[in-house]
Q: What sequence folds into this?
């Protein structure tokens, strides 16, 4: 299985204690599978992953978005403000 580097920001980075993690995903994986794998490998992230914003190649995604080995992946906690 290919390894994907996932950049973590803000609270997600603080929970894991590092700026990025490597996740192994099957070929033709989706963002939904990425969320599941992140929660399994890093249980501290699990409560935040349903609402986390996932970007692939600087574009916000849906859970159905495919992930390719060369993609840049980033995870952000939900953003709010006024």
A:
């Amino acid at each position: 299985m290919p390894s994907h580097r996932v950049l973590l920001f803000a609270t997600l980075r603080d929970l894991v204690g590092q700026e990025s993690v490597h996740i192994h995903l099957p070929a033709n994986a989706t963002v939904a599978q990425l969320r599941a794998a992140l929660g399994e490998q890093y249980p501290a992230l699990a409560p935040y992953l349903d609402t986390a914003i996932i970007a692939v190649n600087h574009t916000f995604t849906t859970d159905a978005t495919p992930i390719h080995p060369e993609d840049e992946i980033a995870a952000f906690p939900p953003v709010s403000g006024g």
